[in-house]
Amino acid sequence: MSSSEPSIETSITPKSSGKDAGLAPLVLTLVELIRQLMEAQIIRRMEGNTLSEEELDRAAESLRQLEIQVLQLCEIFEIDPADLNIELSEFGTLLPKSGTYYPGESSQNPSVLELLDRLMNTGIVVEGSVDLGLAQLNLIHAKLRLVLTSKPL
C-alpha cells in the first residue's frame, strides 16, 4: 500500500459474537464470495496475458489487503473463517474448499463460486419482469435485463 492510500483501521466492538453476530457472518460471506470471484478473474486474465506486471501487482496487493480485513473482522466478531463457506445441500457449498479449485479447471462437485466464475467467463444474459401490487392492483412494473460477464461489452 502506498503512502497516499488511506489505511483502514477496524475499531468495531460487536454486541454479540460467533454465530449470533447478527448480519456480520452474512456480510462477510458475501464479501469473501466476491473476493474469491475477483481472484479467479485475475488468475484468468493473468494466464491470458491481459494484465501488465504493474496491474497484476496492484490486483494481488488489493486482494491480499481485502483478505486481511475479512480475517480481522472474523476475529472481531469471533467468527471462524471456515464458517463463511455455507453448505447449500444439493447445490454443494458456496465457496470451494481451500485448494480445490483453479479457474479454468472443472471439478466433480463445483461450488457456487465455481459456477459463477464459469458464467462470468462465458457471459450470461438474464431477462425478466416483476409486477408488484396490492389489493389486486399492479402498482409497479419493472423489466430487468442483467448482463453478467467478465469481458468488456
TrEMBL record:
One of its GO terms (biological process) is gas vesicle organization. It is found in: Gas vesicle. One of its GO terms (cellular component) is vesicle membrane. Pfam families: Gas_vesicle (PF00741), GvpK (PF05121). One of its GO terms (molecular function) is structural molecule activity. Keywords: Gas vesicle. Belongs to the gas vesicle GvpK family. This is Protein GvpK. It comes from Planktothrix tepida PCC 9214. The lineage of its organism: Bacteria, Bacillati, Cyanobacteriota, Cyanophyceae, Oscillatoriophycideae. The gene is gvpK.
